[in-house]
Amino acid sequence: MSRKIIIDTDPGQDDAVAILLALASPEEIDLLGITCVAGNVPLALTTKNARIVCELAGRTDVKVFAGCDRPMQRKLVTAEHVHGKTGLDGIDLPDPQMALQEGHGVDFIIEQARAHDGITLVPIGPLTNIGTALQRAPDIAAKIDEIVIMGGAYFEVGNITPAAEFNIYVDPEAADIVFKSGIKLTVMPLDVTHKVLTTKPRIAALRALSGPVGPAVASWTDFFERFDMAKYGSEGAPLHDPCTIAWLIKPELFTGRHINVEIETGSELTLGMTVADWWGITDRPKNAFFMGDCDAEGFYALLTERLARL
Ligand code: BDR
Ligand code: CA
Q: Which end is more exposed in the chain, N or C (fewer Cβ atoms within 10 Å of the end residue's Cβ)?
């Protein structure tokens, strides 16, 4: 049975791959819409990029909404140093023809949560839209089956500061609302995404796919992996965001632990840290299924098989 999901996103090359994986997987995923948020690049670009990705897949029917253009309480921090000036650097694709939906992404999340019997939210950018929706309409918490998040870290600690992962760091107050919401949370932290590397043979398999999608994905990863390879000395870059969608399709690829995770919102030094009680040191309530490992070969086999359909 397919799950009704909303992808909340700031594309971003890895966000783009997550959206494509969802579009390629209708048996498991019923994509109600895409809500965009400011993150990797400002909102004007994330809304444009989400539509470019839908059009690349020939899916002009997907509903794409603009959401929040800045974090709940802070100034926006962006990541052009990773994703390039457009957020989707690596290949020149045509400007989108499909229109943005009218209305605000936060209102769409609230309406859809109230309209269905259990939806799944998949935030793969800063948590501003979800935090705002929960603050404005607390009743929707009971209508959301699960939130599957790309964000945070434990052993890997941080990528935007020594202590914090980008999505949580950009809007820690929104993340705090989500992690305290009582909603079932599944979290893909850097500890998992750093195992899912864009090695040469994995990307060659995607580049070899017929149709425009595989080569575009290969060009995107060629672009953004330069940053992580230089930083970590790894043989490829982590493909962070598609881990969320892969988990919805094939959860057996991942293992993790039910633990307590709290968000640091006070300290300047460790702002946005996901304080994850992996070893059960405290008796604080378990509020998240925090992933620790992934079958990377299985992940790329799934991604390649699915993207071949588009
Ligand atoms: C996350 O930050 C963004 O740059 C990526 O798209 C991903 O969602 C990784 O820290
Ligand atoms: Ca993202």
A: N
Distance 88 CA to ligand 1 centre (A): 13
The pair of structure tokens assigned to 252 is 């057996």
Strands 254-259 and 261-263: unpaired
Answer whether the bond into residue 292 is a cis peptide, omega within 30°. no
pLDDT of residue 265: 98
Across the chain, which has 310 residues, the per-10-residue mean pLDDT values are 96 98 98 98 98 98 98 98 96 97 98 97 99 98 98 95 98 98 98 96 97 97 86 88 98 98 97 98 98 98 98
Question: Any idea where the domains of the chain sit in the sequence?
Answer: 3-307
Ligand 1 atom having least distance to the Cα of 238: 9
Distance 125 CA to ligand 1 centre (A): 6
Point out which residues pair with 124 in neighbouring strands: none
Buried b (16+ CB within 10 A) or exposed e, 244-270: bbbbbbbeebbebbebbbbbbbeeeeb
Question: Which distant-in-sequence residues (6+ apart) come within 8 Å of 309 by Cβ?
Answer: 24
165 close to ligand 1 (CB < 6 Angstrom): yes
Decide which of 3.20.20.150, 3.90.245.10, 3.10.180.10, 3.40.1390.30 is the CATH code for 3-307.
Answer: 3.90.245.10
Ligand 1 closest atom vs CA 241: 8
Q: Is the CB of 45 under 6 A from ligand 1?
A: no
